[in-house]
Design a protein that fits this description.
This protein is mainly alpha-helical. It contains two helices and no strands. The chain starts with a helix and ends in a 20-residue tail after the last helix. 0% of the residues are buried. The model has no long low-confidence stretch (mean pLDDT 76). It comes from Sphingorhabdus buctiana. Keywords: Membrane, Transmembrane, Transmembrane helix. This is Energy transducer TonB.
């Protein structure tokens, strides 16, 4: 049977080995995500600047597909329109 001192040292070694393994996995995942993010930035920037009309795209994907009307589709909001006299 192992002595209590050896058991404590072995537990500390296993704990430290586990901590090093977790830090290694986290750092590898961070490097992969950073590389993937840096590869995506030029593609996203080119889609925004490649528009022929020079306007920035609105954040209305359903309106672009024609499913819902765009906010800018009306010239005047209904609350500002005058009722006929």
């Amino acid at each position: 049977m192992a002595r209590p001192a050896q058991s404590a040292v072995q537990r500390i070694q296993v704990g430290l080995l586990g901590l090093v393994a977790v830090l290694l996995f986290v750092s590898i995942a961070n490097m992969i995500l950073d590389r993937a993010d840096s590869n995506m930035k030029p593609t996203q920037a080119s889609t925004v600047t490649d528009r022929k009309d020079g306007k920035q795209p609105k954040d209305e994907p359903l309106a672009e597909l024609g499913v819902t009307p765009s906010v800018g589709a009306e010239e005047e909001p209904k609350s500002k329109q005058r009722a006929p006299n």
